[in-house]
């Protein structure tokens, strides 16, 4: 991908200045989600204020011994927990590795440290995997919203879609199709229930999630207390 440094309205459309040149277009879509930054200012000034970027991480184990994968997840479901700070996991497409992800930390940490934290969480759920190494670790951002709903919308040549709460692989397929319908039809009426304008924002939030370490730690504390009481 090529980073867009600036988007400006020009007669007949928009001009996007990128690291590799300038593009012009009649319409522009802000599909930057958790990576929405200063480039949206001026055209979509409130979009960034309505999105809370949260870092999430994944790890993959080394190949599991034959038969162990089937005992760990017999039907190979995709599992997503219902806690406040969730973990999610499934087997790799070839059924040989366990893929495990979640919010490893709400503080800035390198991939080695976040992988170690996720590995510890994995072993808490699957102690029979003790001794297996983690061979891959990676991370990125997902976009949360105050109302915990995705949003799409726009008009006058500028559009947006964002805020899938960490479920963008499935939701963005649907929302992208819906936004394309909205743009091509030129209709001002909502195309679905998520077409209701910019995400709501808090007056004390400017797009920088300064509160996440405190809020995330509080959620982790509540989850731990409920586990002990169960």
TrEMBL record:
Domain spans labelled FAD dependent oxidoreductase: 3-181
Position of the signal peptide: none
An annotated Gene Ontology molecular function: oxidoreductase activity
Residues in coiled coil: none
A GO CC annotation given for this chain: cytoplasm
Keyword presence, Oxidoreductase: yes
Keywords (A to Z) from UniProt: Oxidoreductase
Highest taxon above the source species: Bacteria
InterPro entries: FAD-dep_OxRdtase (IPR006076), FAD/NAD-bd_sf (IPR036188)
Protein name: FAD dependent oxidoreductase domain-containing protein
Protein's organism: Pseudoroseomonas cervicalis ATCC 49957
